[in-house]
């Protein structure tokens, strides 16, 4: 396998890891005003992700760094074309992170209320905008090669806000919301656990409808492509695992439901990547203007060095994160929250 193709899939795996792990963080944040009946409830909900949320976000940093090193043209074109959307995502992530650290300073209900709102919106906007961006990558964007080198994005933020792109954003947001609710049920006990499971079922049904329409639309757009079999396969797996996750949640098997939801998000994103391959950006102006994997990749020497670094570093990162989840595997209850804190 060519190193450029290998790194296309490595970047894809890193992004899948980010959306699976930070995806339930987003879902927990979106659930905060719906499940948190008082400040103790809200602290229980936040504490379910307290030890891991910042570790989950590092997958985005690693994916961005690998994208920059392996496909600089893709990185440059995407970050210039999606500039406003990425800026909004960055602001939302900053507000969310700051809120996790400062809401517990104990300066009154108004203080915590503002930070709770920041957590909600900082958890809602990123999956909505990420989903919209990745849907547009699969559909095609107004890009063309420049005579001086590189590719030029000729659209605006409004170009991304088309029906297909917005449906992708809504579908990913609902998938993350369901994922987070199941995680709350997995990590809590008592009344919060029951309410999280019930809400996960209701939200999951809506998410299943939105995701089915989006995946069906994606398959329809790419029928006849060289990779259409892979698009159909991963779309079917995404649908099957998500339905299994809803049924397992109803049965009270939160651990298996969480695993099924994680697989569903992974398969949904792999559907997008297979619809995109062998291109990095599909041109809606002229297919001949599309950015290919080989055409935007770094040199073989750079990719070879990155491969050796990945071989040694990625297993260590995965092992450390697995150890962290094992250490903080216990359920969080209201009894764990000091009344005077």
UniProtKB/TrEMBL annotation:
Record's subcellular location: Cell membrane
Pfam families the UniProt entry points to: Cyt_bd_oxida_II (PF02322)
Keywords linked to the UniProt accession: Cell membrane, Electron transport, Heme, Iron, Membrane, Metal-binding, Transmembrane, Transmembrane helix, Transport
Keyword flag Glycosyltransferase: no
GO molecular function: electron transfer activity; metal ion binding; oxidoreductase activity, acting on diphenols and related substances as donors, oxygen as acceptor
GO biological process, one term: aerobic electron transport chain
Record bears the keyword Membrane: yes
Cellular component terms (Gene Ontology): cytochrome complex; plasma membrane
Superkingdom: Bacteria
Membrane topology: Multi-pass membrane protein
Transmembrane regions: 6-32, 44-71, 77-98, 118-141, 161-186, 198-217, 229-250, 262-285, 305-328
Family membership noted in the UniProt record: Belongs to the cytochrome ubiquinol oxidase subunit 2 family.
NCBIfam families: cydB (TIGR00203)
Name of the molecule in the record: Cytochrome bd-I ubiquinol oxidase subunit 2
